[in-house]
Amino acid sequence: MINILKRNGLNKVHAKICSLAIINAELVGAPTHGLSRLKMYCDRIQKKVINPKPKIKIKKISQSITQIDANNSIGFVAADIGIKQAINNAKKTGVGLVGIKNSGHYGLSGYYAEQAVKNNLIVFCFTNAPPAIAPHGAKKSLFGTNPICFGTPVSNKIPFILDTSVSVINRGKIRVAARTGKKIPEGVALDKFGKPTTDAKKALAGVQLPIAGFRGSGLAWMVDILSGVITGGNHGGKVKDPFDDFSGPQNIGHLFITIKPNLFVGNYNQRIKENIKRIKKLPKIKGVKEILYPGQNKFNKYKKNLKKKINIPPNIVEDLKKLNA
Q1: Which residues contact 48 (CB under 8 A, 6 or more apart)?
Q2: Which of 41, 52, 129, 258 lies 20 to 30 A from 277 at CA?
Q3: Strand order of the sheet with strand 95-103?
Q4: pLDDT for the residue numbered 91
Q5: 3-state SS of 39-101?
Q6: 53 C-beta neighbours (distance < 10 Å), count
């Protein structure tokens, strides 16, 4: 992967940053954000809508607040700089706030949240995405599947990380289904005529459904404001689809918020341990052995997958062969 990305103009450091993030997605059981996207990133570099040699500008607004203009870099690089800056800011002042504009798709939000949690920080990550969800009451998609991500350190080594899109399923799963000819579940999408569909291609041309009806639509709107409006990034349906729209850069916005957990109480670690313990002790429904907190399942998959080979579908293998030719 590093060689492929270097061949597409990235320097070795940037190529490694991207490769680690993509492989991490495979290891945590999210192949929709892994190798299946590598060709798309390379296509966008070749079409000159991702800048492989960006001149990233970092503007210090205060000890806690930083603004980053990513100069249309690949999203992984912009986000890597951003989360590291947010971590440094929080370590100095207790709170870090970093806004990024002129970026691109950065993979899994949880990947960046984990970096902050490993530095003993609470973290929020926001990023917007191309139109996929219709605002409540509308029949045209405008909001992205805009993930909400929160992380906190806990007393053991398994970080608490909630990383969820506001759509019933993420768009990557629908794209994979479209490429492999598989059906998608009922109740996750409508076709372009507003009718329920299990056809992945019709779903991509139509509208994805948000979680919890108007509440999910409201959350998508919130993320669009936090990651797009406030940062200077594209918003209100202006983020371009990375697979299909090569008319210009995406100008995605990201927002990272990092917080020292002991700002208000000195015994945060003890309190979070007590919080999780109480919930895990609750009576369980039939078939459930353990109540898991967000992040435990992905961590377990990661540990398990480290000892296994990564299974790559034949069509993705072909992409990799062509890219590495």
Answers
A1: none
A2: 258
A3: 57-60, 65-69, 95-103, 252-259, 122-127, 148-152, 160-164
A4: 98
A5: HHHHHHHHCCCCCCCCCCEEEECCCCEEEEECCCCCHHHHHHHHHHHHHHHHHHHCEEEEEEE
A6: 10
Helix (H, G, I), strand (E, B) or coil at 13: helix
Return mean pLDDT, the chain.
95
pLDDT value for 311 = 87
CA 206/CA 312 separation, integer angstroms: 28
Indicate left, alpha or beta for 135 from its phi (over 0: left) and psi (-120 to 50: alpha): beta
**pLDDT, tens digit (0-9, with 9 covering 90-100), for 111-165:** 999 999 999 999 999 999 999 998 998 878 999 999 999 999 998 889 999 999 9
- Give the count of alpha carbons within 13 A of 263, CB side only: 13
Could you give the C-alpha distances from 208 to 10, 49, 168, 186, in angstroms and in order? 34, 26, 8, 11
Residue keyed to tokens 């993320």: 223
The Cα 302–Cα 24 span in angstroms is 8
Phi, psi values for residue 162, rounded to 5°: -95, 115
- Cβ contacts of 243 within 8 Å, gap of 6 or more: 40, 175
Distance of CA 137 to the CA centre of its chain: 26
| CATH-assigned architecture of domain 2-167+210-259 | 2-Layer Sandwich (3.30)
